[in-house]
Design goal:
Blueprint: H1 8-14, E1 22-24, E2 27-29, E3 36-41, E4 46-52, H2 56-72, H3 80-96, H4 98-109, H5 113-136, E5 140-142, E6 148-156, E7 159-163, H6 169-183, E8 186-190, H7 197-207, E9 216-218, H8 223-232, E10 238-242, H9 245-254, E11 261-265, E12 271-274, H10 280-292, E13 304-308, H11 309-324, H12 344-360, E14 362-365, E15 384-387, H13 394-397, E16 404-410, H14 413-421, E17 425-426, E18 428-432, H15 436-445, E19 450-453, E20 468-469, E21 472-473, H16 478-483, E22 486-494
Parallel strand pairs: 7-8, 7-10, 8-9, 10-11, 12-13, 12-18, 13-16, 15-16, 18-19
Antiparallel strand pairs: 1-2, 3-4, 5-6, 6-22, 11-21, 14-15, 17-20
Helix pairs in contact: 2-8, 3-5, 3-6, 4-5, 5-6, 10-11
């Protein structure tokens, strides 16, 4: 690790005891199985830590702790001001340790330091946002006929199991924990076994804030051993999952035992539509950012680039020139613009799709694993572009989750809409045009949860995030994300206390 200039603090921290433990009921606990998971640096495939791997028994202990903590009411019935204060303290603590989180994220995930810094800042902003809006969250009074009074209140759901992916480890933890805690729930967080390190560091910080034991719990481990017991438990009231669509479907199936609430943020194959009247340089810049940002490991990546035929040939030429300038390298190295894929399994998957693409379309750029000096043993691959792609080709229909762009020509607005909607997914889309009316028409016609107009991948905490079709169920962020962690209750009262006399007049 010396060659990538990791701070001395991080080196010592990686050898600390908490790395090997789970956080359950306010304490760092050894796993009952004593099993470990090796955590690697994607840039070198060097083992940088071994974390504890939770068993079903460990998860059940976390569920029991969260259940008791919720039922005690110490947190669930605390005031909005108390919860808001706690969330602001979390944000302050993360910000105070920002550089540590940035280093850990890059070391564990592989993304560049610039990308990691943006993620950590996003986590800070998420906690602050929910700290602010929970104070203003109110109920409703319904206008009903006398003598009745009706009001609607929102209450925490209960015990929440939260399963997060490896592409945005800290940010996804914040997206889940902040609204859940703001609403008064208790939480069991299961990070990806590939990238658990920033979650461990986050829980070390949370431990210093004197939350009641059991309110927050951390169970590292595999999906089968740690995730599935959460999903199947009748003591868990809600599951929030971000990850692959097939896993999301299984979670739905295994959640039916107690009909727990389920929210799923799943895959995507998002279309980025470039019309001939778009600002050319802006569209070109965003086309590369939309797919190669975060090494393409983004659920909303603009992986299907639709370009109007009148500018198609020139746009493709300029796109290739821009893509070849992207500097791929270790996320710690100055000048790196795109890091490695997260692990060898993902590298193998992306390479397999590139091989498929070579049979389906024209490879215009990239397509090779990067090896040699600076890339030794890492999961590096070139930014890759396929052109003249059939919209029904596998590389245009299936989520690759890597830096692989499929470019599809279109003639008319109607054709662009048809191609864009011809997908099992419906997470996001981009529209580039100088015609405001056209932008509104196309945005309305696209069956997706988020559309960007003349920009891409600008995710706002204040607005809802989620998709149509196989891209998921429910929404994160904004007030919508808070509502996902609340039950709605109607309370009906009468101002006239008297018998109904319903059964006293038999002959009426």
């Amino acid at each position: 690790m010396d060659e990538i200039n990791v701070s001395s603090f991080i080196k010592k921290w990686l050898a600390s005891k908490n790395i090997e433990k789970l956080y359950i009921n306010g304490r760092w606990e050894e796993t009952k199985s004593k099993k470990r998971i090796k955590v690697k640096n994607p840039a070198t495939n060097e083992v940088i830590a071994e974390v504890g791997s939770a068993s079903k028994v460990d998860v059940e202990a976390a569920i029991y702790a969260a259940r008791n903590a919720f039922d005690s009411g110490e947190w669930s019935k605390s005031s909005a001001y108390e919860r808001s204060s706690l969330l602001n303290k979390v944000a302050d603590k993360i910000e105070a340790h920002l550089n540590e989180f940035v280093e850990i994220e890059t070391l564990n995930n592989g993304k560049t330091l610039k990308e990691s810094k943006g993620d950590v800042e996003g986590a800070v902003a998420t906690f602050r946002y929910y700290a602010a809006i929970i104070i203003g969250a109110t109920g409703e009074t319904l206008q009903v006929g006398e003598p009745f009074v009706s009001k609607v209140v929102r209450e925490p759901i209960g015990v929440c199991g939260q399963i997060i992916p490896w592409n945005y480890p800290l940010l996804m933890a914040a997206w889940k924990l902040a609204p859940a805690l703001a609403a008064g729930n208790t939480c069991i967080l299961k990070p990806s076994e590939v990238t658990p390190l920033t979650s461990i560091r986050l829980f070390e910080i949370l431990e210093t804030l004197s939350l009641p034991p059991g309110v927050i719990n951390l169970v590292n481990g595999t999906g089968n051993n740690a995730g599935q017991p959460l999903v199947e438990s009748n003591e868990v009231d809600k599951i929030a999952f971000t990850g692959g669509t097939e896993t999301g479907k299984k979670i739905m199936q295994h959640s039916v035992g107690n009909l727990k609430k389920v929210s799923l943020e799943l895959g995507g194959k998002s279309a980025n539509v470039i019309f001939a009247d778009a600002d050319y340089e802006t569209a070109l810049d965003h086309a590369t950012f939309a797919i190669f940002n975060n090494s393409g490991e983004v659920c909303s990546a603009g992986s299907r680039l639709l370009v109007q035929k009148s500018i198609y040939e020139q746009f493709v030429k300029d796109l290739i020139v821009a893509t070849k300038k992207i500097k791929v390298g270790n996320g710690f190295k100055q000048g790196s613009q795109m890091g490695p894929l997260v692990n060898e399994q993902q590298l193998k998957k992306v390479k397999a799709y590139i091989d498929i693409g070579k049979q389906e379309a024209t490879l215009a750029c990239g397509g090779n694993q990067l090896i040699g000096e600076g890339y030794e043993k890492g999961n590096f691959i070139e930014p890759t572009i396929f052109i003249d792609v059939d919209p029904r080709a596998r590389i245009a229909q299936e989520e690759i989750f890597g830096p692989v762009l499929t470019v599809i020509p279109f003639e008319t607005e109607a054709e662009a809409i048809k191609i864009a909607n011809d997908s099992p997914y419906g997470l996001a889309a981009g529209i580039f045009t100088d015609d405001g009316s056209k932008a509104e028409r196309v945005s309305t016609a696209l069956r997706v949860g988020v559309t960007w107009i003349n920009t891409y991948e600008q995710n706002l905490i204040e607005g809802p995030w989620g998709g149509y079709k196989e891209s998921g169920i429910g929404r994160e962020l904004g007030t919508y994300g808070l509502e996902e962690y609340m039950e709605v209750k109607q309370m009906i009262n009468t101002l006239k206390v008297e018998p109904t006399n319903w059964f006293t007049h038999e002959n009426e």
